[in-house]
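From the methods appendix. Each design record in this collection lists the tokenized structure first, followed by the designed amino acid sequence. Records were kept in a plain field format so they could be parsed without special tools. The example shown here is representative of the layout used throughout.

RECORD:
FOLD TOKENS (329 positions):
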């Protein structure tokens, strides 16, 4: 019987991922580090049984409805907003993601961003390289404290809870708002339920977004929401770019409606170099690297590879996002 075929959609993965896949499947490695053109994704869905994409590769209904071969997508991401899940399900294509293993890396990065803005790390680094460190003068870089401040978390899943755990070390008060209340996590982490979004916005000194991108969260942060935040507060976006209305963010930062923002995600990605956000000094920005410690990067790839192999060899599949797809295979 012919071995199943898997499309590894980038050439930058740890060699052990290709080696593992090769034990069970034919592996087609795409020799590129950028997202594949849509027409290539359509074509490969009729030539391969499995895809190992990044969380920004769009696998839409056109791909899924025309796919004559694709059976499993092992997304190397916890987010799944790049895949049309109803289309995958009706076509019997299993979608898996990588929960559980990236929470600590993302929570570390949340604090890296928060502190970078609060204590002017990236701005002062830029200033030194531009030749501006000529005297001892701290006054251009007077920052904000993190300790004893209120950290607001929107989205209290695995990542949000890991952020709350770290906040305790900074003696921060933690409040959160989420789809559902989590009393056990509240008790364990000393976090308070904000009760509603408005309270979260009004009381947070740092507001961290850790929600998935869904119809409910798209455009969540707009002009009205920024206006409710404290003037000295800071937005940290570790979720997805479209959760924040980017023009409204620019306006809020430019007019000092809030003190600053630290964002790991934008809409679109990569952000165009002429985006006005990049002209602002009160913005810290990183290129969607929230989970990207070397160890976590590889662990996510291996988890995706294991799920693909399990799906193609009839083994139980962990981290299935749409188990209902099994009925349509
Ligand atoms: C994730 O895992 O969802 C990260 O944002 C990478 O896409």
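DESIGN:
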């Amino acid at each position: 019987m012919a071995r199943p075929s898997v499309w590894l959609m980038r050439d930058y993965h740890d060699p052990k991922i290709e080696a593992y896949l090769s034990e069970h499947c034919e592996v087609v490695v795409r020799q590129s580090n950028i997202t594949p053109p849509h027409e290539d994704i359509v074509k490969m869905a009729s030539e391969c049984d499995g895809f190992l994409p990044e969380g920004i590769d769009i696998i839409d209904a056109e791909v899924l409805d025309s796919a004559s071969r694709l059976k499993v997508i092992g997304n190397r991401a916890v987010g799944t907003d790049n895949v049309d899940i109803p289309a995958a399900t009706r076509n019997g294509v299993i979608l898996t993601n990588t929960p559980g293993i990236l929470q600590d890396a993302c929570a570390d990065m949340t604090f890296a961003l928060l502190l970078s803005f609060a204590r002017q790390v990236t701005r002062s680094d830029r200033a030194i390289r531009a030749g501006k460190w000529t005297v001892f003068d701290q006054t251009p870089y007077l920052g904000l404290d993190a300790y004893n401040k209120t950290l607001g978390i929107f989205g209290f899943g695995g990542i949000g809870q890991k952020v709350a755990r770290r906040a305790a070390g900074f003696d921060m008060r933690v409040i959160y708002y989420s789809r559902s209340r989590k009393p056990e996590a509240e008790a364990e982490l000393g976090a308070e339920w904000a009760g509603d979004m408005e309270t979260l916005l009004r009381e947070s000194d740092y507001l961290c977004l850790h929600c998935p991108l869904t119809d409910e969260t798209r455009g969540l942060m707009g002009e009205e929401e920024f206006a409710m935040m404290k003037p000295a507060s800071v937005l940290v976006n570790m979720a997805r770019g479209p959760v924040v209305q980017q023009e409204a963010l620019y306006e809020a930062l430019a007019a000092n409606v809030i003190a600053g923002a630290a964002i790991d995600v934008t809409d679109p990605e990569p952000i165009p170099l002429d985006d006005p956000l990049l002209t602002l000094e009160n913005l810290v920005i990183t290129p969607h690297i929230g989970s990207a410690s070397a160890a976590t990067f590889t662990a996510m790839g291996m988890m995706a590879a294991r799920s693909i192999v399990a799906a193609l060899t009839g083994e139980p599949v962990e981290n299935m996002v749409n188990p209902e797809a099994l009925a349509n295979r």
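APPENDIX NOTE: The chain is about 35% helix and 15% strand.
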